[in-house]
């Protein structure tokens, strides 16, 4: 059993006065595109967001075959890493692929590969350039959940912080490019980025 966790609890400030998670992207809410693609690689889906987002996201995901469940931030606005912890705390599977709600080109075959790389480790995290792609990575759900909690208890909100408390595999650029293109990590933040991306569907 493999889980997918979609992290969607951000405020979309660069996007404007509406939630980018459910914003229309070439006729489909962005979070639905992520759920459909990630759903090809997993057996269960959990969406992390705030309470006030549930109605709109639930509508966007209606009739999804995996019947996504919600893991709500008790304490909102604590950053993506807190959202990852909340989402991972709600999965039934041993391993989970975490994907941000703003990565509509996420490649399910690459997610499959990340699950393979994570096996018998606590995480597989891509590093296609100088940055770790922690919001498109596979984690041992309990191990990462606990590492996030420990980081938050230290007052640390940086998204890479829990990694240094885990036994993790780095998926280097060469391995990324052997399995997918860098589009899988493309995240959309502004209206301009939405408009440019919409032309590609
Ligand atoms: N649960 C939770 N998720 C978050 C939080 N901040 C960001 N995220 C999520 O993390 C991912 C990447 O974050 P950003 O691209 O910065 O999204 P954002 O914060 O909504 O947008 P900006 O306000 O423009 O930074 C997205 O999937 C967000 O939904 C947070 O405080 N809590
Ligand atoms: Mg942000």
TrEMBL record:
Signal peptide: none annotated. Mg(2+) binds at residue 102. Its EC number is 2.7.7.77. Keywords: Cytoplasm, GTP-binding, Magnesium, Metal-binding, Molybdenum cofactor biosynthesis, Nucleotide-binding, Nucleotidyltransferase, Transferase. It comes from the Archaea. InterPro entries: MobA-like_NTP_Trfase, Molybde_CF_guanTrfase, Nucleotide-diphossugar_trans. It catalyses: Mo-molybdopterin + GTP + H(+) = Mo-molybdopterin guanine dinucleotide + diphosphate. GTP binds at residues 7-9, 20, 48, 73, 102. GO terms for molecular function: GTP binding; metal ion binding; molybdenum cofactor guanylyltransferase activity. One of its GO terms (biological process) is Mo-molybdopterin cofactor biosynthetic process. It holds the Pfam family NTP_transf_3. Residues 4-161 form the MobA-like NTP transferase domain. It is found in: Cytoplasm. Its cofactor is Mg(2+). One of its GO terms (cellular component) is cytoplasm. The N-terminal domain determines nucleotide recognition and specific binding, while the C-terminal domain determines the specific binding to the target protein. Belongs to the MobA family. Transfers a GMP moiety from GTP to Mo-molybdopterin (Mo-MPT) cofactor (Moco or molybdenum cofactor) to form Mo-molybdopterin guanine dinucleotide (Mo-MGD) cofactor. This is Probable molybdenum cofactor guanylyltransferase.
């Amino acid at each position: 059993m493999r889980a997918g966790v979609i992290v969607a609890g951000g405020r979309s400030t660069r996007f404007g006065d509406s939630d980018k998670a459910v914003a229309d992207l070439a006729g489909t809410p962005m979070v639905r595109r992520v759920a459909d693609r990630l759903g090809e690689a997993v057996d269960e889906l959990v969406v992390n967001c705030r309470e006030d987002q549930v109605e709109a996201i639930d509508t966007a995901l209606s009739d999804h075959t995996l019947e996504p469940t919600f893991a709500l931030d008790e304490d909102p606005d604590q950053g993506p890493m807190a959202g990852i912890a909340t989402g991972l705390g709600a999965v039934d599977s041993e391993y989970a692929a975490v994907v941000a709600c703003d990565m509509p080109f996420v490649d399910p075959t690459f997610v499959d590969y990340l699950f393979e790389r994570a096996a018998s480790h606590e995480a597989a995290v891509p590093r296609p350039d100088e940055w770790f792609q922690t919001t498109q990575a596979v984690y041992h759900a309990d191990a990462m959940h606990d590492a996030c909690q420990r980081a938050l208890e230290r007052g640390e909100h940086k998204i890479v912080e829990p990694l240094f408390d885990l036994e993790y595999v780095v998926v280097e650029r060469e391995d990324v490019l052997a399995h997918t293109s860098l589009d899988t990590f493309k995240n959309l933040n502004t209206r301009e980025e939405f408009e440019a991306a919409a032309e590609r569907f």
